[in-house]
Please model this.
Amino acid sequence: MKKNILLSIFSGLLLWLAWPPMHYTTVFLFFGLVPMLIVIENIINSTSTKKGRRIFNTTFLGFFIWNTLSIYWVYNSLKIVGSLVAIPISLIPYTLGPLLMATACWLYYRLRLATNRCWGLAGLVCFWIAYEYLHQTWDLSFPWMTLGNGFAVAHQWVQWYEYTGVYGGTIWIWVINILIFLIYIGFREAQTKLVRQKLIIAFVAVLMLPLSCSLYRYYSYQEQSNPSNIVVAQPNIDPYAKNGGIPPYEQVATLTRLSDSLGQVNTEFFIWPETAIPDPIDETHIRTNSYFTQAQHFLNKYKNGTIITGAETYKVFNTRQTKTATLYDGNQFFDRYNTAVSIENSAEVHFYHKSKLVPGAESLPFGDALSFLKPVFDHLGGATGSYAGQEQPSELYAQSGIGAAPVICYESIWGEWVAQSVLNGAQFIAIITNDGWWENTSGKDQHLDYAKLRAIETRRWICRSANTGISAFINQRGDIVQQTKWWVKAALKQDINLNSDLTFYVKHGDYLPKTASLLAILLALFLLVRVRYNHPVISKRGTSEKS
Model:
């Protein structure tokens, strides 16, 4: 028992050491799960009772260590809503992810009892990917720890994400770990030399073929010349001072000065960070808003320029038109949005509302079932669970017709969501964020690294404006071409190459996790039918296994 616990802890530590922003240890992903597989095998072959429960508990420990050490910074991002709310909300990513991971391992164990090792391991990959896909689609979504994200600091290895997305990386990691595990088991169980040789050959092939293809693609990839001049601004305003500490007019003035320092006649986009305009704006009357006119006045000297800026906006309704609407002034309702606004030298103005909202902090999970909690959040000042979004991604266009995919903060870890904007016509990706909530932790570095994967999936430049760092330009291969330092006031200028070609992933989206999830559901139904009609499975010791 003690040995299994130590192996589980060791697995969790290996995965943490392999995780961004760690450099030079990404290779640990290829064997970090092997100790966990050995733990499960040891328990299956033991004489202990309640093996399923032991597998769940032991694997949960290792996954909890990996998750907690990798995303320890989550608590910092929630302190604004107060410790009463921040502590329970921060427990969601620390514990919920590991619970789902351990459940996948438990389902693998049940499938092993019903079939054999090979079918069980194939099922494990399906169960795991189904968990990852669930964790990016339900109300408690937090796909930060999707295994394929682990290659964000070694993006040269996964240029084929343009075909598979990050889930291809998850499959790659699992298959290599499984092959190493089977080679180990082959020696432990004294399997024939031929079987071990086949496993070793398979391991080398599965490792080297994707890696070789990726490196070839990386070094041979050539961008088509289609330049556009872009400026991103980083005002470096303390997020806790944005509302009340520094007047909004002064914040916008800081952004215009930074933009003007690098702007030129042919600059087509100025990109400002999330909630760059912090004072809530009524979208219906935005053209007369003083901050809007202040930004538009800046554009007078940049006739072809368009500003993409973050803003707090709202809409007022005479009747409750959405589930998220809040009662206002007795007989009216309003929705609040975390918005990206495009401003140009015309009367045209367009909005994109952040839709992948942070559970608890920006949206109320399972709002229909937990609607009774909304008054509690309103009592907290409406800072929690109070934003509305939109059903589909949309693009922001300049007067010249150039399309940008607006991506607000947390949304940048949803590959398919970003790809949908590219499919609709976006020629580059504008990420606006406010990473200051996480303070000087690895959270800001992970967030930047993950953006490189979106560049590879879509073959689009990333123009990233962060309020307090790190702002950057990332090319179509996923290379960071320019970046700012943390906690500095700065601006960057870059001629990027626009791209209108569509990758396989952009055209087909998350086809891998959808397929794996369907297979996982079929396997789970198989297990239910077996339990329902064939009685409990008999373990090797001749006793019924019920857990």
Q: What stands out?
A: The domain at 227-355+390-507 is CATH 3.60.110.10 (Nitrilase/N-carbamoyl-D-aminoacid amidohydrolase). The first strand starts at residue 227 and ends at 234. Residues 83-114 form the longest helix (32 residues). Residues 158 and 324 are 39 Å apart (CA to CA).
